[in-house]
Specification:
With 224 residues, the chain is an alpha+beta fold. It is 29% helix and 25% strand. The protein is globular.
Length: 224
C-alpha cells in the first residue's frame, strides 16, 4: 500500500505495519521511505537548497519478546495548515509559469512544528508509562537543524529539563532533507556505526518523531 503522508510518511508506515501485525493480517512488513525531491526543486528558491533525494527501508516483524513499538501519536492538520507546503511557480520570472515546484512557508512550518511535535512526543511517553530519563535517543525528521534543536528543547522543557548531550543524532549536514527517507537512513547510519559515537543497544528506548506536508505529525516509542 502507498501512504501519502509527506515527510512523516515512513513513521506512519511503521505504525501501519504495527497495526497489520497486531491484527494478525501480516507477520512481516517491508516499510520503505523514498523521495526524489530533485524533480520538484526550484533552483531559484533558497528555501529549497537543503532538499535531497533518498531512500530507506526496514523489515518490521512480530516478536514474542517485550520489544518493538510501545506507543504512538499521529494527527493530521489540513485546514489552514494545508498550504504550508504547496506547489508554485519558479521565482525566476522567465521560467515557464505552468511548471510547478515545491514551495513552503518556512516560518509557519517552524511555528507549527514547535507547537505540535513536542506534545506528540510527550503523549507517546505518557501512553507507554515511560520516564523521560529512559529515552536513549530521539530520532527526528531531518528538515532543519535549527528547528529540530528547538523541538528538542521545547520537548524537554515540558519536563523542566534541558536536553542531554548527544541524544539527537543529526544527518542533515551530510544527506540534506530527503523527506520520508531521512529517518530510516538516519536509523541505518546509527545501526551501522556510521554516525560518530551514536549507537543502539538492546533494550534502549528510542523516540521517533516527524512533521511535514499536510500538515501531518507523528511520533512513536520503540524498545530495541
Amino acid at each position: 500500500m502507498t501512504l501519502l503522508f509527506g515527510c512523516p510518511g515512513w513513521n506512519e508506515g511503521v505504525l501501519h505495519a504495527h497495526a497489520f501485525i497486531k491484527s494478525g493480517m501480516a507477520k512481516r512488513c517491508l516499510v520503505i521511505g523514498a523521495e526524489t525531491l530533485s524533480r520538484v526543486v526550484d533552483p531559484y528558491d533558497r528555501d529549497s537548497m537543503i532538499y535531497a533525494d533518498g531512500a530507506g527501508a526496514v523489515v518490521v516483524e512480530a516478536t514474542p519478546e517485550d520489544r518493538g513499538l510501545l506507543s504512538f501519536e499521529s494527527a493530521t492538520y489540513a485546514l489552514e495548515e494545508s498550504e504550508y507546503l504547496n506547489f508554485g511557480s519558479s521565482y525566476h520570472h522567465q521560467h515557464d509559469v505552468d511548471v510547478r515546484f515545491i514551495k513552503m512557508k518556512g516560518r509557519k512550518i517552524y511555528e507549527f512544528a514547535l507547537s505540535k511535535v513536542p506534545l506528540a512526543m510527550q503523549a507517546c511517553l505518557q501512553k507507554a508509562a515511560i520516564d523521560i530519563s529512559s529515552v536513549k535517543k530521539v530520532l527526528i525528521h531531518q528538515a532543519n537543524e535549527r528547528m529540530d534543536e528547538a523541538i528538542l528543547i521545547r520537548f524537554y522543557a515540558l519536563y523542566n529539563m534541558q536536553p542531554p548531550c548527544d541524544i539527537m543524532p543529526m544527518s542533515i549536514h551530510n544527506l540534506g532533507n530527503s523527506s520520508v527517507a531521512t529517518i530510516p537512513t538516519l536509523y541505518d547510519m546509527i545501526a551501522h556505526g556510521e554516525l560518530g559515537n551514536h549507537k543502539f543497544q538492546e533494550g534502549d528506548i528510542i523516540l521517533f518523531a516527524s512533521v511535514g506536508a499536510g500538515m501531518n505529525i507523528d511520533a512513536f516509542t520503540y524498545r530495541m
